[in-house]
Amino acid sequence: MRPAPAGQAWNELAQKLPAQLRFGVSTWSYPGWENLVWDGEYDSSTLSKHGLEAYHRHPLLRTVCVDRSFWRPLTTSQYAAYAGQVDDGFRFVVKCPASVTDAQLRGDEGKAREPNPGFLDPNLAIEHFVQPALEGLGAKLGVLVFQLSPLPWGLLSHPASLLNKLGHMLAAVRQALSGHASVIVAVEVRDPELLSQALVDTLKAHGATFCLGLHGKMPPIEAQLPMLRALWPGPLVCRWNLNRLFGAYGYADAQKKHYPFNALLSEDPHTCTVLARTIRGITGAGQPAYVTISNDAEGCAPLSIQKLAQAIAA
Q: InterPro entries per the record (predicted)?
């Protein structure tokens, strides 16, 4: 596989961006990106296995979020296979498995069945996530994301106990990362009730940051930025997952509208403007920024990244 020749036309734009900034997408197996990222037509299976080799040569795509690890823990060899497809300057954002970050065990349709005994278990987090990612990706590991799935009211109503448990896990993660200071640890939440000084204090205590999660389940970006201000100075980790116009559970509707994901059909100029300003401020102060975007944000992640890059360069 080869990168799309048209993508190389974005070289000049890429050179105008801050060196600390890394853009990426949430996966790379979309046939609709023909002539945007890929040089021709490939099926999803081929893209899943080999697309990363072409993807990482696109001048604006310097990271990628490995969502696959959320659904099932990946092995060291699987991470190493990813690392072998990219050059030394590329970095990965990887998500901790739901077996650690979801308080519920769920059935095939996603409905909660019973409490998860492994929720925020430090040993599971290290064994099933941190160690294999670190050993497999090596210096190409950029960010470890711990996305807490929507929590039951029993946990949300006792935030001190929840954050104490989160703190114990983050302490173990930080210890496992001893000697790897460049790896960013980020916590993403799906419950607005957790946006608090108590969460800030927990993250600060263990050298972690807050991940901006942009989708309908959470408040808009400007309502989440106070979390980053309270953690300043620090890096930016942002995952723009779903356009708010589809609501909290609108992924299926977004996929239906946006397929085959080769055009911007649901533009969100407000989020783009605020995010561009945020990126400029954080990278301008010398801090790193990892920003990954889904097709569900505006319809085509590579074109969203191009538009955002143009706003930053301007």
A: DUF72, UPF0759_sf
